[in-house]
Amino acid sequence: MTNIMTTNSPYPHLLEPLDLGFTTLKNRTLMGSMHLGLEEEKGGFNKLAAFYAERARGGVALIVTGGIAPNIAGWVAPFAGRMTSSRHAKKHRVITDAVHKEGGKICMQILHSGRYGYHPLAVSASGIKSPITPFKPRALSTRGVRSTIKDYVSCANYAKSAGYDGVEIMGSEGYLINQFFCERTNHRDDEFGGSLENRARLAIEVVKQTREEVGAEFIIIYRLSMLDLVEGGALWDEIVYLAKAIEKAGATLINTGIGWHEARVPTITTSVPRAAFTWITQRMKAEVSLPLITTNRINTPEIAESVLAQGHADMVSMARPFLADPDFVAKAMRNESDQINTCIACNQACLDHAFEQKRASCLVNPQACYETELIFKSVAAPKKIAVVGAGPAGLAFATYAAARGHDVHLFEQANEIGGQFNYAKQVPGKEEFYETLRYYNKRIQVTGVKLHLNTRVDANLLAQQGFKEVVMATGIKPRLLTIPGSDHPKVMSYIDVLRDHKYVGAKVAVIGAGGIGFDVSEYLVEQENLTTNLDKWLAHWGIDKAFKTPGALVEKQLHEPPRQVYLLQRKSTKVGKGLGKTSGWIHRHSLINHKVQMMNGVSYEKIDDQGLHIIINDKPRVLDVDHIIVCAGQEPLRELQLSLQEAGMQVHIIGGADVASELDAKRAIRQAAELAAEI
Fold first, then answer.
1. Taking the alpha carbons of 21, 22, 28, 31 in that order, is the dihedral positive or negative?
2. 45-74 CB burial, b ≥16 within 10 A, e <16
3. Cβ-count burial of 226 within 10 angstroms (0-12 exposed, 13-18 middle, 19+ buried)?
4. What is the chain's Cα-based Rg?
5. Is the predicted pLDDT of residue 570 greater than 60, yes or no?
6. Model confidence pLDDT, tens digit, residues 151-177
7. Gap between the Cα atoms of 268 and 44, Å rounded
8. Which one from 118, 175, 566, 604 is the annotated catalytic residue?
9. Could you tell me where the beta strands, DSSP code E, fall in 228-305?
10. Upper half-sphere CA count for residue 323 (Cβ side, 13 Å)
11. Which residues contact 388 (CB under 8 A, 6 or more apart)?
12. Candidates 3.20.20.70, 3.90.470.10, 3.40.190.10, 3.30.300.180; correct CATH number of 2-355?
């Protein structure tokens, strides 16, 4: 029966069951661990239960929770989730019961943060401070290490009593076990330091003793760091040694970990090619017989199927794609991949929120982690609603409102939907915006939104068509430059560049170093799209696919940029400080790699044939440039508002038309969804 089903399946490898001996997973998808911020919220366990249950209902085979500490020293932050008592275990029952009710399986991740702990009680293999946290850790004594092993085992036992189907032991991403394994952070001279065997001892003993405690019929996933991507990281032979020892110690599955949090190599953002690291899992398949899980930037069923069909792994881990669409697997099973709300790997509402200790969600799916609060009920009395503007806010509102049963007409003056997304999708590394627009085009069809392209509306037109309620999602207009010479032929707006593709010279000054300024700069200096050429992308970031060096790092292969770009800002703060917490450094490094000169504390004096006259550090300077591109902010576009109100219509304003703030799609889509749920 199984063979018949998978043979006829649109994704036969992805949807094939996986027999683990004592239990069977219904397909090859694992929802990877994500800390959601609900773990610490009041009533958070009920919200977590709803979140995980929806993903189980959507068909994912095995869920892994966010990291739960085995003791207080292992906290990610004060009062973060931990599992150290039967009282803690009892609280988790609502989660496991909800997942099992939907036919799913769920493992709890045991994560000891080690020196990444954002608190003064942090411990590690040695007293070496992390570059990304303010607290220097205390080196665990030999006795302390043995006690920590017992805490892992106890934590797994409590997880079992809480109804979890297994645990994932986090040995990757630079957390405690990883810190013990690498010479970078382990300078010990006892039985847990020095030789490879000693550095591997903590990981092996945790798995071995956990298996002895929980018995044979309990899933143990070990998250193995296969690429550290840091100086002083592990060598390939060392990783193979640990993998074989973990298999012997009793693990059920090995999951792939890529990069430490402090690594200066991007691993999951939009600019990373899809399935960029599955080759390392494939390499490990030749070394162990356990089923292997691969991960990172797998966000469509087509990519997942390809990875499995090529034999790179036995399962695929996708975390953020299940934030974006809880029905990812169910839609794949129905051969409806064109209806999947694809993760665009922006990190803005998930990882950025986690590192800011806020509740996680998803830019393209604001319902994620708000399943019990943001609810779209069918309407008893449908309204006829006009939506003006088919940018992110207008698209989100129109499709959510139409799905509830309203008669929604979406007006757009351009010949395509997308608004500012149509500019963003052209920036190298932001091609995933094409997926969002593909999704909305399909949602318009499925929900019955009446789309009117090439239509410029006014109050008379809407009144004649009988609209009494209008949602203005008209977006923004670029803020103009107000210095002498701002009308000079050298001056351009970012719309001239990204929308109209006007010629840009070899020397360019970009005024404004917010997200748009960075995007325009990237657009101007990137010679080719590295996200579609994996080998060149790996070489650009200095990743050695042959893995002959510690951490697989080599010298970056950089190329001369086609233009000299100056990126300028008035503020004296660090250029790019306002970018995303987990991705801003990548944008800065990318521009540095392309020799972009970033300047802060700049006063703009005038523009003339000589170029851009500025004052920096109290000294006048002339930038001899061919063009000056203005990315100095936006203003709301609300010209329609007054005439609509005078015509007696009820007007709602959302997105950039409400607050023009660096083209904030995350806020725009959430605001649109909340209005659609209420209207």
1. negative
2. bebbbbbbbbbbbbbbbbbbbbbbbbbebb
3. buried
4. 26
5. yes
6. 999 999 999 999 999 999 999 999 999
7. 27
8. 175
9. 253-258, 292-294
10. 26
11. 394, 411, 457, 470, 471, 472, 473, 474, 640
12. 3.20.20.70
pLDDT exceeds 60 at position 474: yes
In degrees and rounded to multiples of 5, residue 110 shows phi and psi of -95, 115
List pLDDT tens digits, range 645-675. Answer: 999 999 999 999 998 765 679 999 999 999 9
Measure the CA–CA gap between 637 and 653, rounded to whole angstroms: 10
d(CA 169, CA 157) in angstroms, rounded, equals: 13
- Please choose, from the candidates 99, 102, 96, the residue with its C-alpha nearest in 3D space to the C-alpha of residue 83: 96
What is the tens place of the pLDDT at every residue in 3-56? 334 447 799 999 999 999 999 999 999 999 999 999 888 889 999 999 999 999
SS3 letters across 576-630? CCCCCCCCHHHHHHHHHHCCCEEECCEEEEEEECCEEEEEECCEEEEECCCEEEE
Q: At what angle do helices 665-678 and 392-404 cross, to 10 degrees?
A: 20
> What φ, ψ does residue 295 adopt, rounded to 5°?
-155, 175
* Residue pair 8/298 in contact by the 8 Å Cβ criterion: no
Q: Are 65 and 17 in contact (CB under 8 A)?
A: no
Answer yes or no: is pLDDT of 2 > 60. Answer: no
pTM of the entire predicted model:
0.94
List Cβ<8 Å contacts ≥24 apart for 643-646.
643/458, 643/459, 644/459, 644/462, 644/470, 644/472, 646/459
Q: What is the pLDDT of residue 662?
A: 57
The phi and psi torsions of 116 (rounded to 5 degrees) equal: -85, -5
Q: Name the architecture of domain 384-477+636-678.
A: 3-Layer(aba) Sandwich (3.40)
**What mean pLDDT do residues 288-307 have?**
98
Lowest mean pLDDT among 185-189, 442-446, 573-577, 607-611: 573-577
- The set of residues, in sequence order, having a beta carbon less than 8 Å from that of 332 and lying 6+ positions away, is 10, 11, 14, 15, 59, 301, 340
What digits encode the pLDDT tens for the residues 309-358?
A: 999 999 999 999 999 999 999 999 999 999 999 999 999 999 999 888 89
Per-domain boundaries in the chain: 2-355, 384-477+636-678, 480-527+562-632
Q: What are the phi and psi torsion angles at 151 (to 5°)?
A: -65, -40
pLDDT tens per residue across span 64-113: 999 999 999 999 999 899 999 999 999 999 999 999 999 999 999 999 99
Residue 523 falls in the annotated catalytic set? no
Q: Which CATH class is domain 480-527+562-632?
A: alpha beta
* Sign of the dihedral through C-alpha 517, 521, 522, 523: positive
Phi-psi map region of 206: left, alpha, beta (phi>0 left; psi -120 to 50 alpha): alpha
Q: Are 35 and 116 in contact (CB under 8 A)?
A: no
Query: Which ranges in 176-300 belong to alpha helices (H)?
Result: 176-181, 196-214, 236-249, 278-285
What integer pLDDT is reported at residue 6 of this predicted model?
Answer: 43
Q: What are the beta bridge partners of residue 256?
A: 224
**In one letter, which amino acid is 518?**
F
The answer to whether 135 and 92 have CB atoms below 8 angstroms apart is no
Looking at residue 561, its amino acid is: P
